[in-house]
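User: Fold this; tokens only.

Assistant: Input:
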Amino acid sequence: MRNVLAVCTKELYTYFVSPIAYFVCFVFTAISGFLFSLLIITASNRGSTGGFVMETLFGNMAIILIFFTPVLTMRLFAEERKSGTIELLLTSPITDGQVVLGKFFASCTLVLIMLSLTLLFPLLTQRFGYLDKGLLLSGYLGIILIGSSLLALGMLMSSMCKNQLVAALTSFGILITLWMIGSLSTRGGPITQFLSYLSLREHYHDFARGVILLKDVVYYLSFTGVCLFATFKSIESSKWR
């Protein structure tokens, strides 16, 4: 665990000594704040409740993360491959699994910092009436789960690419596909049901509405676990190339 924390600390330091962390946090908060202000105005005009505001905001925040998580993960392995430091990292007295987990926890920590900047929104929303605490709990849990899935996939792409831009664009393309693939499942049948199950969006709807289902939690945890395992295998195989 000490080695994992060491890698995590090193990656967090790298994030915050560069403009990446500050840029991502600022832009994510600015876009979320802009959408929140629009939803507040809409709620005021329509007489909607705070639940409407947060439910809609949670849905939009998940889409925003699709654009930002590739930026956070593109350099994790691709930069080290390009600079040649990946060999030093892999020959150091830590395991490949510890390297993968340390980098993953570092990116997750940055996402949690980004989400913590949005905690002011529920406080402001309460001015419009009672806000269900269950909705907030499920909404933020869903954001964290889907965020971890996005980061894990981004890490996998970074471990397979030498160019950061290629890693980011590949991650973004796959994430958009997995987000939109549920729209293809409108005619029924086993194939469309399978596509619907693969969709990131289909498993997120209930979280945004304040409902936590075990199948959705298992999906995101399984997705994250598979991507992390594939990243581990990708790093392990690089030793033999």
